[in-house]
Design goal:
By secondary structure, this protein is of the alpha+beta class. It has one domain: Alpha-Beta Plaits, CATH 3.30.70.100. 35% of the residues lie in helices and 33% in strands. The chain is built from three helices and four strands. The longest helix has 13 residues. The radius of gyration is 13 Å and the shape is globular. It starts with a strand and ends with a strand. The relative contact order is 0.32. The mean pLDDT is 97.
Length: 97
Amino acid sequence: MVVHIVMFQFKEENKKANLIEAKQMLENLMGAVPTLKSMDVGMNFSTEDRAMDLSIITSFESKEGLYAYANHPEHLKVIDFIKTVVEYSKVVDYERA
């Protein structure tokens, strides 16, 4: 099992609306991308300085499944939107037994 975690820091302009839109777009990938086995999308409520705005935790059967997701046309549409509204993101990918 492969786990893919991404955390996003959004730009301040239209932040709330963009967070809601990104969350919905990401959730819509479930069922649209065959290799995506699970997805959890969460908007942050922490007020800590180190907090990020949005996170996703996804799982795949294999690295190949993750790569297929990364290049899937529906996922690429989400990336195109997110690139316009996010300051930066952080990612962690690992294998779980």
